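Q: Protein A?
A:
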Amino acid sequence: MTLRALLAVLALSLLLRGTLSSFFAGTSATQDEHMVLRWLAQVAGFALLFWIPAFVFKLRPAGLAQLTGATPQPQALLQAVCYGLLLLAFAWSEGAVETLIVAQFNPALAYAQWAFHADAPPISYRFSEWVAMTLKMVVLVPIVEEFFFRALLVGTLRKTKGMHAAAIFSSCLFTLLHYPRLYLVSTLVFAFALAYLYMASGSLLLCIAIHAAFNAGVLVLENPGWQLLARTPAHLDQPSAWTLELAVFLVSSALLLRAFFRYRHAVIGQAGHPAQNRSYSAR
């Protein structure tokens, strides 16, 4: 499987998702029906990222098992969930740091662009919407994106370009496709962390667990935990108003740096593909 083929699959997936979204947007449907149609368009786009490589490139059960790698111990899965929440804490606090920095120069722009409005109501989902969002964000997205970006893209690039190029290219592509404006740093850190973790552990299930925990936390923050970040325009440029977020940013950054060098060292010390040489257990 080549890099060019994988990029073609990704482009086809985005094209299908965009086409369906544009088509559904033009229909005379209710707001609830539009939400369902957009959800179906996203699901269809994600499905292509899995099914095209699995069938067109003939990934048989043995090949899929090799990409999935070692089965982690329950202790390691619990550790992966903690890493996911740590990455979420970094993303949550990174938004505050970005807002504080921009507010030093233009408070109005910071308030308008960084979505920390004190008068903004939290997102409220009905039960059926919770079910749909949970299935997509906590189940479908982590499985498909980790399979494509980490198992396929990182695995392919590592064989031809080396581990650092694999981590850099896959992480930059993942970031550009997710957040074109905000949270670029935390999205890039997220992708780097999972790329090196996959290369170090050889276990895709750990990456899926981290991704699922992160996305589950995002749902909780949106309903209504995100209000913890709400600030009035008069307070955006005051560091004292962001004490908790700044502390979380510093602590999570230190812990993530420690984890990064730990897994980077583990990758450097390996020979060959990690899934073929080692299994991962909580340490």
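Q: Protein B?
A:
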Amino acid sequence: MAITDKHHCRQIITKAICGKGRKFSVVTHTVTPPHHPTSILGAWIINHQYESVRAGDGIEVIGTYDINIWYSYNSNSQTDVAKETVSYVDLVPLSYVDPKHRAATEEVSAEALQEPNCVEASVSSSGTGVMIRVEREFAVEMVAETKVCVRVCPNGCLDFEDKDYDFGSQDDGFDDLDPDLSDEEL
């Protein structure tokens, strides 16, 4: 009998990952401190917050973070810290989408694979600002209801009937398992 025989298959509606995507971004921000900077002593990013929403063919990651720049001015005789809050929107395209998912049931999420990080800071060519290069990376998922087809045993699951299975809490054989092993490594 063919697996596609309608008497031996059932469609089940279940929640599943119906879309995935990933995006790496490099952006440059210009921060203008109150004093003309002579040199950059440090730059870092804090207070990163974001959320995700479905948008067209992808998922938008909408967020903010604070840029802090420690710099010297007045011919390296004084220092100060300039702070600026930056807003961003990254559209992460879905590289996979289940065409049979139910759009009304979509739930989206985003995970920062690389939190926003300052990889370069330099005084601008005009000498009045600081150029900050920031890298960030997100992975997104869309969970929704979809249909899956399963094969049905017409006479039930005979392999499991009339057998005595002990599903007790014996720990035999699990001592060698690595608890840090991820699904991706299997």
